[in-house]
Amino acid sequence: MGIGEVGELLRRSTVYIHSSGRREQSAGSGVIWDSEGTVITNSHVLGTGEHLVELWDGRSFRADVKARDDVRDLAKLKLPATGLPAATFRKQAMRPGELVVAVGNPMGFTGALTTGIVHAAGPFPGLGHRPWVQAAIRLALATATTRLTTHSSPTICS
User: Fold this and answer.
1) Structure pTM?
2) Per-residue pLDDT at 62
3) Do 134 and 30 touch, CB atoms closer than 8 A?
4) What is the average pLDDT score of the chain?
5) Which part of the chain has CATH 2.40.10.10?
6) What are the tens digits of pLDDT across the range 116-152?
7) Edge-to-edge strand list for the sheet holding 147-150
8) How far is residue 24's CA from residue 11's CA, in Å, rounded to a whole number?
9) Which of 15, 28, 120, 131 could bond 45 through an S-S bridge, CB–CB 3.0 to 4.6 Å?
10) Which CATH superfamily is domain 14-78 in?
11) CB 68 within 8 A of CB 41
12) Torsion, Cα of 143, 147, 152, 154 (10° steps)
């Protein structure tokens, strides 16, 4: 499978999120976590107002915030929809030198794709025992919640 085909598959479970409140607007990307309407995004993508989530096929849904952790910059949304194309996740450990692909919606460009290389993977001193992936990927300005995947595997992290 080529990078273009991988990108097309990833775009189906990557969403565009637009939040609007009385004085603020924000936008970014998210990942469909399960087929029952759970979406994971960055906390900083969400404002204080309403959250509209647009799917790859053009459907839009209002989302409810179910959990938010500003310290870890993560948020969990729930859409009133089922049967959604959820991301699949890789179980193998990352290795330095692997090619990775990132998909997101920077500045509203739906399904933008870029590539990079893994530099290091595993627990890093000062970051605890959780595994981390350090990768060199050129991202567009204002990109949020970009999905990282290898050229032949499902989502690694989001």
Assistant:
1) 0.79
2) 96
3) no
4) 83
5) 3-7+87-157, 14-78
6) 899 988 887 777 777 788 888 876 654 444 455 544 4
7) 132-137, 112-122, 99-104, 147-150, 155-157
8) 27
9) 28
10) Trypsin-like serine proteases (2.40.10.10)
11) no
12) -170
Q: What is the pLDDT of residue 114?
A: 85
Look at residues 73, 81, 76 and name the one whose alpha carbon lies nearest to residue 55: 81
Mean pLDDT calculated for residue range 78-86: 96
Residue in 74, 45, 56 with CA at minimum distance from that of residue 10: 56
Is beta strand 155-157 parallel, antiparallel or unpaired with respect to 50-54?
unpaired
Q: State which fold the 3-7+87-157 domain adopts.
A: Thrombin, subunit H (2.40.10)
Amino acid at residue number 27: A
Q: In the structure, what pLDDT confidence band is assigned to residue 157 with cuts at 50, 70 and 90?
A: very low
Taking only the tens place, the pLDDT of each residue in 45-75 is: 897 889 999 999 999 999 999 999 998 889 9
**Residue appearing with tokens 């499902």:** 154
Among residues 51, 42, 62, which one has the least CA distance to residue 21?
Answer: 51
CA distance 7 to 13: 10
What residue has token string 């309407």? 37
